[in-house]
Amino acid sequence: MVTSVTSLGRSGLSDWMIQRISAWVMTSYLVFIVGYFFANPNLDYAQWTELNSSLPMRMFSLITILSIAAHAWIGMWCVLTDYITVRLIGPKATAIRIFFQLGMIAVTLLYVLWAIDILWGI
Q1: Rg, C-alpha atoms of the chain
Q2: Using the 8-state DSSP alphabet, how is residue 42 labeled?
Q3: Could you tell me the end-to-end alpha-carbon distance of the chain, in angstroms, rounded to an integer?
Q4: How far apart are CA 7 and CA 94, in angstroms?
Q5: Residue 15 near residue 2, CB atoms below 8 Å
Q6: How many Å apart are CA 27 and CA 22, to the nearest integer?
Q7: Which domains does the chain have, with CATH numbers?
Q8: So what's the pLDDT on residue 107?
Q9: pLDDT tens profile 36-93
Q10: 52 Cβ contact list (under 8 Å, min separation 6)
């Protein structure tokens, strides 16, 4: 059973909704990019730069990056809470699981900040 220490106050319904919404955002982004490539078969650097420097595209990219981070976090949280349990690993499972969850938070936060720096040039 997942304890309140590792659930971080979330519910299954909110996780399910975040997974579905983030999947929809990522799919929309992919469809848009593929459609843009098909609409511009002779795409050059100037066109690509113009597209990615526009505010709507930067916002769409930022929302997609945040969706990827949320989707990955919930997916990894599910895997960690399903497979790093006291029954499977022993009494140190909770400490090991928290260690991996903190590692996932650190890596995800690093990637999000790096992507924001690339997008916005902070």
Answers
A1: 19
A2: T
A3: 42
A4: 12
A5: no
A6: 8
A7: 10-120 (1.20.1300.10)
A8: 95
A9: 999 999 999 999 999 999 999 999 999 999 999 999 999 999 999 999 888 888 889 9
A10: 58, 61
